[in-house]
Amino acid sequence: MDRNELHACHECDLLLTVHGVAKGRKAVCPRCGAVLFENKPDTINRTLALTIAGLFLFWPANFLPILSLNIMGNTSYNTMVGAASALATSGQFLVAVLVLFCSVLAPFISLCLLLIILIQTKLQRDVVSLAQLFRFYNHVDSWAMLEIYIIALLVAIIKLLDMAEVDVNFGMLCFIGLLITYLGAKVTLEKSVVWEKIELRKKR
């Protein structure tokens, strides 16, 4: 892979020329040690597979019960969307909006944008401006906080164990799967590869 253009290190702003990087190897800044570029094998296809899997898991993860609480014979079922609705009902409207956006809407929009970006990159077609989509994806993705929500769920489960009988439902398994595929897509995606393909199309 020929990468002979100047690149600025995102940590210390050192200008460097990145030459060919073998698959599985990294280009590292000699001054601060930050990773400039990693040539991950088959990054587009792997990220696309994880993105599709995440979209398949999205509905059951958010709309099926994740926990069932049994308190003195009264059983209640909780979903991800239902948690945001309960917050709004209790008067915490702004908190409900933030929870709904960061745990449901932002991850869904990010996965949809990533799917469109990867398909366009793979097919080498620009149905929608790829550069604008990718910039928008990076903005939305910074708001997606699935990992924080799962930590909050685990803390809630631990606190409720002394007060109620807590059972994990199928929705929780789907949510964990969604978290794994979502984070996996972020890890396998090499953004510099996408930007490189965008630049190559501009030069045609």
Task: List the defining traits of the structure above.
204 residues; alpha+beta; Butyryl-CoA Dehydrogenase, subunit A, domain 3; two-stranded antiparallel ribbon; 59% helix; elongated
Summarize the structure.
With 204 residues, this protein is an alpha+beta fold. It has seven helices and seven strands. Helices cover 59% and strands 13% of the residues.
**Structure summary, number of beta strands:** 7
The averaged pLDDT comes out at: 81
Radius of gyration: 21 Å
- H and E string: EEEEHEEHHHHEHH
Architecture of the largest domain, according to CATH? Answer: Up-down Bundle
Neighbour order of strands in the largest sheet = 6-5-7
Largest sheet properties: 3 strands, antiparallel
Please report the first level of CATH classification, the CATH class of the largest domain. Mainly Alpha
- Please tell me the total number of domains: 2
* General form: elongated
Specify the number of helices.
7
What is the beta-strand fraction?
5-15%
Q: Percent range for helical residues?
A: 55-70%
Distance between the ends: 18 Å
What is the CATH third-level topology name of the largest domain? Butyryl-CoA Dehydrogenase, subunit A, domain 3
Structural class, by secondary structure, is alpha+beta
Low-confidence stretches: none
